[in-house]
Amino acid sequence: MERGQGFSIAGRLRSLRFAWSGLLTLFRTEHNMRIHLAAAFAAVFMGFLFALSRMEWIVVAGCIAGVFAAEALNTAVEKLCDALHPDPDPRIGRVKDLCAAAVLVTATGALVAGILVFAPHMGAIFR
Ligand SMILES: Nc1ncnc2c1ncn2[C@@H]1O[C@H](COP(=O)(O)OP(=O)(O)OP(=O)(O)O)[C@@H](O)[C@H]1O
Predict the structure, then answer these.
(1) CATH of 35-126, one of 1.10.10, 3.40.1350, 1.10.3470, 1.10.287
(2) What is the ipTM, given to two decimal places?
(3) Which candidate, 106, 79, 114, 108, places its Cα nearest to that of 95?
(4) Catalytic residue IDs
(5) Which residues lie with the beta carbon below 6 Å from any ligand 1 atom?
(6) Model pTM?
(7) Do residues 12 and 43 make contact, with C-beta atoms less than 8 angstroms apart?
(8) What's the pLDDT at 123?
(9) Where are the domains of the chain?
(10) C-beta separation of 66 from 109 below 8 A
(11) What residue intervals traverse the membrane (predicted)?
């Protein structure tokens, strides 16, 4: 936001357009994001199939949002690193490894939460 500019609906809508454009770029350019998207669709499909409770939907939605946000931040830092320091540098490598670790931790947490939410429903089918 530039200094001296007041709040305006048009300004907020413009910011929303930028965020949407970032989201589209993420899905178009990041292969990992397509895997996250496929997992999210599978979780939502199974959520309707098993008629999840409100609390279970909150867990699923939180996991999907968390993984997408982690991947967006990871991609942003990667692009910033490449723009500021295109040459190989062990410090840049460490920064990228740390960001990748953040995505891994988030995705693993989402996987564990997904198993805890869906396993009892699947177990009920085979009982
Ligand atoms: N400029 C660099 N200097 C040193 N090591 C780097 C550099 N760029 C990347 N690396 C190393 O290579 C790894 C992969 O980097 P890259 O930018 O290809 O990320 P990625 O996770 O493979 O990206 P994507 O998911 O977009 O394919 C990094 O985690 C880091 O260890």
Answers:
(1) 1.10.287
(2) 0.90
(3) 79
(4) 71
(5) 30, 32, 78, 88-90, 92-93, 96-97, 100
(6) 0.89
(7) no
(8) 87
(9) 35-126
(10) yes
(11) 35-52, 58-77, 98-119
